[in-house]
Design a protein that fits this description.
Layout (H helix, E strand, L loop, with lengths): L1 H22 L4 E11 L2 E10 L1 H10 L5 H7 L6 E6 L3 E6 L4 E3 L2 E4 L15 E7 L5 E7 L5 E4 L10
Parallel strand pairs: 1-7
Antiparallel strand pairs: 1-2, 2-4, 3-4, 5-6, 6-9, 7-8
Helix pairs in contact: 1-2
């Protein structure tokens, strides 16, 4: 019981430090992003590493503290929902990420971050996984790529 109290006191002392790091955006480092296309929706899988104090905070108290920052990474989309998050990565769902046009879903390029707070650094690796399973990978990006897929494409079936 004394150990738990000691841990909570220690966390209370480092929480202001974590909050300060959050304002300067240097506590979460995105390693790669994978965008899964699903009709007009998209799911983004993020792999990241956390600054040491933030990692301890998340291990002790959970990932809810990270949710606003993770959602703001896709802030240029209107309907973003956090599906899951842990100390190494997160999955976010974006409803209506693409638009339907003549048998295709079109996904316009969107900068990472929000209009008020764009992402300062590039993301080393960005991959797009199409419904039929094909993958395209881009390196050192600051935005999603302009991509499209055929409506009704199924996993394992390539339609050209």
């Amino acid at each position: 019981m004394q150990y738990i109290a000691l841990i909570l006191v220690s966390l209370a002392m480092i929480i202001p430090g974590v909050g300060a790091a959050a304002s300067s955006d240097d506590y979460i480092y995105v390693d790669d992003v994978t965008m899964h296309l699903q009709g007009d929706n998209a799911t983004f899988d993020l792999n990241y590493s956390l600054e040491t104090f933030t990692r301890f905070y998340v291990l002790a108290l959970g990932c809810r503290y990270l949710e606003p920052e993770l959602l703001s990474l896709l802030g240029n989309y209107s309907d973003v929902r956090l599906i899951k998050a842990d100390v190494n990565g997160a999955s976010l769902e974006v409803k209506d990420a693409g638009k339907y046009n003549s048998g295709y879903y079109l996904f316009d390029s969107r900068p990472f971050g929000s209009r008020d707070k764009p992402l300062k650094e590039t993301i080393p690796k960005f991959s797009v996984i199409y419904p039929e399973g094909r993958t395209r990978t881009f390196y050192n990006v600051t935005a999603t790529e302009n991509v499209f897929c055929r409506a009704g494409a199924l996993a394992g079936h390539i339609d050209f």
